[in-house]
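cron nightly-structures :: item 1 of 1
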Amino acid sequence: MSLPGGTSRPRAASVEARLARLGFVDPIRARRMLDDPAMTALVGVADDRDATSIALVEAMGRTSDPDQAVLGLLRVSEAVAGGALRDDPEHGTAALVRAVREDDVARLRLTAVLGGSSALADYLVSHPRAWRAVATAQRRTGDELRDRLVSAVQPATRGARSAYDALRIAYRAELLAIAALDLTSPDPVADLPVTAEALAQLAEAALEAALAVAREEYGPGHEDCRLAVIGMGKTGGGELNYISDVDVIFVAEPAEGVGEDRALEVGTALATGLMKACSATTGEGSLWPVDAALRPEGKAGPLVRTVASHVAYYRRWAKTWEFQALLKAWVSAGDRAVGMAYKSALSPMVWEAAGREHFVEDVQAMRRRVEGLLPAGEAARQLKLGPGGLRDVEFAVQLLQLVHGRYDASLRSATTLEALGALAKGGYVGRDDAAELDEAYRFLRTLEHRIQLAKMRRTHLMPVSPIELRALGRSVGFVADPASEVQEARLRRSRNVRRLHERLFYRPLLSAAARLSTDDSRLSPEAARARLAALGFRDPAGAMRHLESLTLGVSRRAAIQRQLLPVMLGWFADEADPDAGLLAFRRVSDELGTIHWYLKMLRDEGSAAENLARVLGRSRYAADLLLRAPESVSFLGDPAGLAPRDVAALTAIMRNAAGRRDRADEAIAAVRGVRRHELLRVVFADLVGGMGIEAVGRSLSDIAEATIEVGLEIAIRSVEHATGEPVPTAITVIGMGSLGGRELGYASDADAIVVHQPHPGASEEVAQARALAVVQELIRLLAVPGAEPPVGFDTDLRPEGKNGPLVRSLESYAQYYARWAQTWEFQALTRARCVAGSRELGDALIDLVEPLRWRPGGLTPTQVREIRTMKARVEAERLPRGADPRTHVKLGRGGLTDVQWTVQLLQLQHAYAVPALRVTGTVEALTAATAAGLLTPEQDRVLRASWMLASELRNAGVLWRGRAVDSVPADVRDAGGMGRIIGREPGAPGALVEEYLRVARRARAVVDDVFYGAAGELGAK
């Protein structure tokens, strides 16, 4: 940059530093361009004291890409100076100099366009006269735009140009003006609706001008057809993008005295000519494709129909999505009377569409289909179609419009943000939610506009280039770290949009239920019941009664419920059983509604109310537990409330609770009260916290272990109190089965064996009697009916099974196992683990059984055959009558038992040589077996997947139905409810059965190979 008094390097460096501070990426190159002779007339002497120079450089520094702005201005200056325009008083060099140096607004607009769009900069270089459209840009009405473009294509106006070229030049001049106003807006996000409307009005003006061209090309006779162009999509909604197809439907009526066939023939020719006038490529390029695929029968249907033909089609053949598309229908060009007749005829059908069978499901399924078609690599970058994108807002708004617009005409706007505002005003969407969606939609659309403007290309993808991300971030006001800031801002809004999209359903029926208003804009109770039914409530009348009970009155409780329920109804409606969820919420609220913290927590803790609705709508088991311990709902309002406690913490809490009670029954009741709370904590974490099946098993096992530990202490005290003397023997409980493996499910019994060891000098007979009394008391205490499921303390795996004593001494165990134990008992011991009582004695028993379960040399061929034979008997005899072996998750083919027996066989065969196999958990053993080469990684993956899915389904069955479910349900509602609990998408009733059959079939193939087949034979040798 030239400087007074010379060009010393330090001075140049200071100029470059200024440019760098203003946002120029390559300040040295920028300085050279500013020094270019073609720029000196604009820039003048680039001195720190030169106010014009400073103003121009600062204006460039405020653009999306300052380096691109200075290059663009240089190129435009050269184009103006080097052509016939140079001396033009309005468009030449002198006029450009005045605009840049003297007109602050013109300077900002020119630099903003040049820095914001390389494509528009290229256009200005090839059409230098158009710089004036940027500098003098003004907001025009739709009528003004229509008049200007129609005038531009008239023969008397366009001169030697073709009508097509004249249309393109006039269109781009107006587009430049819109872009200039948009790019210099102090708040482009707030102004997004104005920009989008201007683009839609410009598109409609172009359609009108293109129709004029088509009429001129057709010549005499075009008057025989009265053709209307119905704008659809974003054009009809008045919210168009910079680069987009323009969706239309053509409607024709004959002129007076003309036959219908003749009118349709002319109308088809005019529609074809209009589409060509817009989409054909000439020396001036093209505008955009005109897409008529939304017409009846799509591309296979006639291009032009009469109003009556449209009505006949929509009455008989139209699908749900076609009525959804008609929400955006607007008379954009052509014969307005014909267009309004079309609107009048079809509008009632649009607002009756919500009464169609499966309407809501159809709309939701369409959104999932659109999302499912996205290429995997694009979904995360999609501003329009991806999760949390623009379509999420639009579909949510349109669904609510179609459902509620039947009764509320204020919702019948074709424009997304107007409709969203109307939904909020009418109470159909919470104001905060609506404001959040509104701001996110404006922001995401602004990003979409800026990305399209950059190169004037149709795209909805976030860029990946750091340079492009930097320019995008600067274009919406980020300056510190624009590339990172814009990505974070976009992701934050997309997450919020997705969250709101997934829960946004029906809200306003609360007003009718609570009878807060009789205003005509509110729904009647009858209409509210119809809407409840449409959104999945099977008993709308019952739901209305619950709402009335919760919200009627002037109490603080009713007032807060009136704030909560408009939102919570949507969450209930989004679950598999909204009726049960709402009923349970009413019952919990009846119990806790007068306690100050309950409603305050639901109102003020962001996730508490949503999580409660999810839990109650998904799980009968959770609802039953919560009704017996309603105060446990406080877990949902505590950030740490869903973190399960470990066994040491649980034992301490239970021991403390029991220690404050004198009588055994009171003490165990206190322990079980703690257990009930902790079960709910795990259930809550499982249902809303994404707790994995392994973590659930560990947590449930910890709860059972702590309960048995403290229960054993209570039982010992009880026996000592009854006998008046200390129990003369140490006692320990050894967990077996799922308890030993730390894999308990919600319906699992706690399998265990009990061992005792008399104290030195104690009588063995007395010790045995006292130990038996303690075990009997423990079983009684754990089985006492209570407010939560009892602890199923099962000792059937003890020596001699049900015929053997409940408790044996350590010596008795040693003798039994040495002389009488069968192979299946050694197999059961693979899961033995000390869970309660004397740890020293427990360690002694584990030491005793180690050489039995991890037998040196593994199993003999005879023992392998015994295990296989017993497994075959289990499959043949223990499967419940009528149960399908393909879908029984525990005993069926490829189910839990198949996987566990296979793993245990490998442990019995190889653990003597592979210490890593000496574990009690199934998944741990699978990992160790694979690491040792006993299973291939693929076999491990298949067996693990089956065990995980079967375990998840068993737990989901209990949560959903409140009782054990051992088969994959064929019932659609049960499958939907259980599938939702384990994270499957709603809407595919048969998918759960199909998934399990596929997973179990693959697992059974591995079992046949490893347990029954060659692998098993190899392991036995």
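cron nightly-structures :: done
The two ends are 88 Å apart (CA to CA).
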